[in-house]
Amino acid sequence: MALIVQKYGGSSLESAERIRAVAERVVATKQAGNDVVVVCSAMGDTTDELLDLAAQVNPNPPAREMDMLLTAGERISNSLVAMAVAAQGADVQSFTGSQAGVITTERHGNARIIEVTPGRVQEAVDQGKVAIVAGFQGVNRDTKDVTTLGRGGSDTTAVALAAAMKADVCEIYSDVDGVYTADPRIVSDARQLEQLCFEEMLELAASGSKILVLRSVEYARAWNVPMRVRSSYSNDPGTLIAGALEDIPVEEAVLTGVATDESEGKITILGIKDVPGEAAKVFRALADAEINIDMVLQNISSIEDNTTDITFTLPTADGDRALEMLGAMKDAEGWDDIAYNDQVGKVSLVGAGMKSHPGVTADFTEALRDAGINIDMMNTSEIRITAVVRQDDLAEAARALHTKFELGGDEPAIVYAGTGR
Ligand code: ASP
Ligand code: MG
């Protein structure tokens, strides 16, 4: 008997009708002879609506109360799914994150899972019940307060639970059929992928693909939990994410896909002294403010005055905060200036095949050249090439790379409701 964890995103639970459809799938999976644990996101746009409500009563709500509020979203969908499953005659029991043993750090709004102790969930499963667990939430042992895992955190709940219960697979349901070679809303001939390895999915998620939350893929890789991305609107088998990069035979390694990211901006510090420790000051200050930086570029220093420029990208959501902080350091450090550009975008090409194919960078840059797109910054990993370009050029850059590397399929991609959540 297999144990299957199924996670349903908000778009799969947006109405009573959709919840009944989910319950049908859950019960069918159970009746096919599997043990089933279900993880629910909040219905539709509930989380956004709750955030909006909170802002109307307090522009700066206490983080603990915010988590009390947001965790209610998943409790609602969770109990409704349990009721719908019960209506189909199956034995069922729902659990909050805390009841399911999801233990987290105490950081409200962005807690990390420390461990999962799913004793009660396991017991329910052993009794032949379908267990339904509220996603996106946990509890801290010291404060005893409920926490949330950051936006999209139900993916992480599902994978962590699957790991703790040694599930055979963790299925992630949304309103798209799987992982595509590019965002089908940007690249019309994007093709659905049958399978990719954890590292490829990690690179795609880190490069702006929104199909899975990065942390959930990190977890899946660490615990070797196969994930299947599927649609709750169809019976397509979806995309399997499993296996390690080093286990892919060279002849099977291909280029997987293109991802775009509009969420980052770029800061340049001009005229920073080119001596040991100057960069460290900048990045320590950013780290202390919990600002995640992504790409970093430092120029060679100018001969006249031994100063250099440092450029880095960061989430535009943190842009103002970073500018304020660096602005306060500028005079004391003797920097010439600080420049900020939030009209940039990141386009990335990912694939295990890059390891063994020389010339991918040449083709990548030529594709952008032929599309008349200027490259602002570049960086690479073993299986990824990323360029920062003007935000207005981003979609065209994705299409140019997708075409150049022949990633497309013959048919236009089917996107049901189209959010991928
Ligand atoms: N409901 C939460 C959110 O919208 C968590 C999730 O959907 O996974 O971010
Ligand atoms: Mg949601």
Give a written overview of the molecule.
This protein is an alpha/beta fold. It has a domain at 3-175: Carbamate kinase (3-Layer(aba) Sandwich), CATH 3.40.1160.10. Helices cover 33% and strands 24% of the residues. It is built from 11 helices and 20 strands. The strands form 5 sheets. The chain has an 8-stranded mixed sheet with strand order 3-6-2-1-9-11-12-10, sandwiched between helices. It has a 4-stranded antiparallel sheet with strand order 13-18-20-19, sandwiched between helices. It has a 4-stranded antiparallel sheet with strand order 15-16-14-17, covered by helices on one side. It is globular. The structure holds aspartic acid (ASP) and magnesium ion (MG).
Can I get a quick summary?
The chain is α/β, with parallel strands linked by helices. The protein has 11 helices and 20 strands. It is globular.
